[in-house]
Amino acid sequence: MMLDEGMWTFDNPPLHMLKKHYRFSPSKAWRDNVRLAALRFNDGGSGSFVSNNGLVLTNHHVAMTQLQKLSTKKRNLVRDGFLAKSRKAELKCPDLEVNQLVEILDVTRKVLGAVDPKAAPKKANEQRKAAIATIEKTSTDKTGLRSDVVELYQGGEYWLYRYKKHTDIRLVMAPEASAAFFGGDDDNFTYPRWAMDFTFFRVYENGKPVKSSNYLPFYAPGAKEGDLTFVIGHPGSTDRLLTSAQLRYQRDIAMPKRLEMYAVRRKALEAFAKKSPEHRRRAQEYRFGIENAIKVVTGEYEALRDGPVMGEKDAAEKDFRKRAKKLCPGAWERIERLQKELEKRNYQLSFRRMAGYELTNFASAIVRLVVEVEKPNEKRYEEFRDSGLESLKRSLFSPAPIYKDLEEWMFASGLRETLERLGPHDPFVKAALGGKSPEAAAKSAIAKTRLHDPKFRKALVEGGRKAVEASKDPLILLSRKLDKFTREMRSWYEDKIESVERIEGDRIAKARFKLYGKKLYPDATFTLRFAYGRPLGYDWDKTKVPFKTTFNGLFDRAESFEHKPPWNLPARVLRAKKKLNLNTPFNFVSTHDITGGNSGSPVIDRKARLVGLIFDGNVQSMASSYAYSNTASRAVSVHAGGILEALKCIYGAAALLGELNR
C-alpha cells in the first residue's frame, strides 16, 4: 500500500499510518466532530456544515440539479448565479435531502448468520436480503433515523449506517456556471485549473436554521505544500477488489457499450439544445452530466486498456490466489464463468427498460412501487423497503418543473437506440413500440401523460395498485406493459449472477481477512470515508506542475483564449479584477485518494479547519477506480482563501463572509 492511499471507514481509520508517517493521531472526539460536520447529498455528492447556523458548503456541480429545478425561463440561476440578500430570500429546494451520519454498527453476524451455508445461491441471496431488510426496518422504527445496511469487502462485512435526514434545504449563494465551470468540458479533469466550483445552502429545521454545533470553520491561509490534510466525504464507488475476470468484462464488454450509449444520448441532447436558448437551458444539466460521464468512463476504459492497471491486478491476484488456494478453492473460476453469462445478455440488461428521463422514471417507479409495497418488507426490491420509502416518495412527489418536449425527445432517442440494439423482433421492442416508429411511440406516451403533475403522481401512489391498474394514462399503461420484461431481467441477474458473486465474494473476503486482517480498506460505497494526504505538486512529461493556482492565472487563461467560451468570465468577475488580490490561491492539488461522490468534500487540516473543497481529479487520477497512485494522480480543490476572496471582491457577500469569519 502506498503512502496516502485509502478511503477508510470511520470504524477503521488508518491511525497507525498517520502516527508512523505524520506523527498525528486524531482523537475519537476529533473524528466524531468531523463525522457530524460532514453531509451526504442525495443528488450525488458531499458537503459539510461551515457555520453553527446550518450553513453548508458543497460544489456548484453538486448543486446543479437544484439550481436547474429552481430556475425558470425568466430566472436562470445556472447562468446568472444567485445570492440571497437575507435569510428570507434564501430559496427552498424542491426535493433535496442531505444525510448526516450519526451512528454506525457492525451487523455482519446478523446478516451472515441468517444465511444457510448449505443453501443454493438463489436462496442464500434471498436470505441475505431479507436479513438486511429486517435490520433496516427495525432500526428505522426504533430510532426514526434513515437506516442503511452497507456491504463492505465484497460481502465480508455488513455495517448499519444511521443518518439524520435533513429535507428543508435552502439555496444561499451560487456563482455563475461560467465561473464555476470555467474552461468547460475542455478543462474538466485537467490541471492547472481555475474553477469557482462552490455553492452554499442552509439547512432548516422547524422553519429555523438548524443549530449545527459540529462544523468546520474556514481557514483562509489554507495548507502549505506538504502539510497533512484530510478529506471527509462520500466516495461513490470503486472496483479495486474486483477480480481480474470482472475487470476484463468491464474493459472488453461493458465500458465500450456504455460509451456507445452515452454518445447517442449526447448527440440527442445537442440536437435538442440547438433549437433555441430556452431549449439549451432546459438541457444544460443533462448535457453537463453526460459529458462528464463520457470523460470519466473514457478515462477508466483507457486505464484498463492501455495502462499498467491490468498487469498489476493480474500479478497481485496471482499471488493472493496462491496464498488463499486452500481457503476458497474455485471461487475465482466461478466468478469468471459468470462474466461469460453476462456477456451474452449485456444488451438486454442495458436496454430492456424505459429509456428516458424524469417522466419514464416516475412511471416505472410508480408501477413497481404499488406492487412491491403489498409484499412483506423483506421480500421487496430493496429500493422499495420501508427504510427508504420516505425518501423515494419525496422524489416522486417533487414539485420541480418537468419539460415535456425534452422528455419526449429523449424518450424517442432511447426507443430508437433500443430498436437498433435489440432488433425489431425482440419482444420488449415490439411491446414498447406497438407497431409505431420510435418518435410516434414516444409522442403517444408523453404528449397526453399527466405524470408531470406531482398531485397526479401522488394520487396514483396513494390509490395503490387499484388506482394504477385502473389508470388510462398512456405512460402508465406503457410502463405496466414493459414492467414484466424489466422484472424478468432483474430476476435473471439477481438469481444467476448476483447470488453467486455474493457467495464467492464472501469466500474471497474471508480469505483476505485471514491473510491480511483489516489492513486493507473496502471499495467505495457512497458512505462516509476518511482520506489523508498532502497538497503537493508533481512532475508530468518533463514539466513541473505547481500545487496551487492563483487569480492571476484565471485572468491570464481567459485572455489567452480571447474570452471565447468556455473561457469567458462573467461580467462581474471582470469588473472585480482591480479589487482582487490576484496572488490569492485559487485551486490546488493534493495526494488524497478520492473518486466520484467526493465532490463537495471538505479538505481540513489537523485542527479540523476547512482549507479547501474537493471538486475534481486530474487526468492522471482516472485510474483511481481500480488503483491508487501518489506519483502524479491528484485530487483538485478550490482553495478556502480563494472562496473568501471571491465572496468579498466579486459577489459582495458581506453577511455570508461575516458568518464564515465568525
Give your account of this protein's structure.
The chain is an alpha+beta fold. Helix content is 48%, strand content 15%. It is built from 24 helices and 21 strands. The strands form 3 sheets. Strands 2, 3, 4, 5, 6, 7, 8, 9, 10, 11 and 12 form an 11-stranded antiparallel sheet that branches. A hairpin with a 2-residue loop joins β15 (538-540) and β16 (543-545). The longest helix is centred in the C-terminal third of the chain and has 43 residues, at 474-516. It is globular and about 65 Å long. It starts with 7 loop residues before the first strand and ends with a helix. The model has no long low-confidence stretch (mean pLDDT 97).
Structure characteristics:
662 residues; alpha+beta; Thrombin, subunit H; 11-stranded antiparallel beta sheet; 8-stranded antiparallel beta sheet; 24 helices
Task: Compose a concise summary of this entry.
By secondary structure, this protein is of the alpha+beta class. It has 24 helices and 21 strands.
The overall pLDDT, averaged over residues, is 97
Tally of separate helices? 24
Q: Can you identify the CATH class of the largest domain?
A: Mainly Beta
Distance between the termini: 41 Å
How many domains comprise the coordinates?
A: 3
pLDDT < 50 stretches: none
SS class: alpha+beta
**Overall strand count:** 21
Strand content: 15-25%
User: What share of residues is helical?
Assistant: 40-55%
Largest sheet: 11 strands, antiparallel
Explain the layout of strands and helices.
Elements: E1 8-9, H1 15-22, H2 28-37, E2 38-41, E3 45-49, E4 55-58, H3 60-70, H4 77-80, E5 82-83, E6 91-92, E7 98-106, H5 108-113, H6 121-143, E8 146-152, E9 157-166, E10 168-174, H7 177-180, H8 184-187, E11 199-205, E12 208-209, E13 229-233, H9 244-273, H10 277-306, H11 309-324, H12 331-344, H13 346-351, H14 358-372, H15 386-396, H16 404-422, H17 427-433, H18 438-446, H19 454-470, H20 474-516, E14 529-533, E15 538-540, E16 543-545, E17 548-550, H21 551-560, H22 571-575, E18 585-590, E19 602-604, E20 610-617, E21 635-639, H23 640-649, H24 654-660
Antiparallel strand pairs: 1-14, 2-3, 2-7, 3-4, 4-11, 5-10, 6-10, 7-9, 8-9, 10-11, 11-12, 13-14, 13-19, 15-16, 17-18, 18-21, 19-20, 20-21
